[in-house]
Design goal:
Elements: E1 5-8, E2 13-21, E3 27-30, E4 35-40, H1 45-75, E5 82-85, E6 92-94, E7 100-103, H2 111-123, H3 132-141, H4 145-153
Parallel strand pairs: 2-4, 5-7
Antiparallel strand pairs: 1-2, 3-4, 6-7
Helix pairs in contact: 1-2, 2-3, 2-4
Length: 165
């Protein structure tokens, strides 16, 4: 059963899902500013979940890029590329090459938690560890990082169950 809505709290977006069952592979496309059309064999649950995850990852990629780059300028760091992935255990990471990876499930978190995680990963461009200097760097950008980190630890509760079935 397709979801009726997608609440992307991190972006303040609420998408209504319009189902249009029919033949063919499941496809998701935007039809207006706040509607998604779900077409194809919607009873193929795995296909439906995969199509929704693909759309969410593409949407997150587009929506996360500008705030990440703005925070990088503010912090005086230069990240490489941004990639958005669907992961079961990690919210984000930063490679030695400067690639920032963010979990698509961040879409379901609060805007403050999303910003905190971006700050956290960008701080790794200066400190590839969780040293005292790393946390001081994070605290300069996000003074409430400890509360936001605790909120993020509980963040899986905000992710719809269909994301990982």
């Amino acid at each position: 059963m397709p979801p009726a809505t997608l609440n992307l709290s991190a972006l303040g977006e609420h998408w209504r899902c319009v189902s249009n069952a029919g033949a063919g592979r499941v496809r998701v496309r935007e039809i207006g500013a706040d509607q998604l059309q779900l077409r194809g064999h919607l009873d193929e649950v795995d296909q439906l979940r995969s199509a929704l995850r693909r759309w969410l990852a593409q949407h997150a990629q587009r929506q996360f890029e500008a705030p990440l780059r703005a925070l990088a300028v503010q912090m005086g760091v230069e990240p490489g590329r941004l990639q958005v992935r669907c992961q079961r255990t990690r919210w984000g990471s930063c490679s030695r090459q400067g690639t920032i990876s963010l979990n698509v499930c961040l879409l379901f978190q609060t805007p403050e938690v999303l910003r905190y995680l971006m700050v956290h990963e960008l701080a790794h461009l200066r400190h590839m560890n969780h040293s005292v200097r790393f946390w001081a760097d994070v605290a300069r950008q996000e003074p409430h990082w400890k509360a936001l980190d605790r909120e993020l630890l509980q963040g899986w509760r905000r992710v719809p169950s269909w994301m990982f079935r």
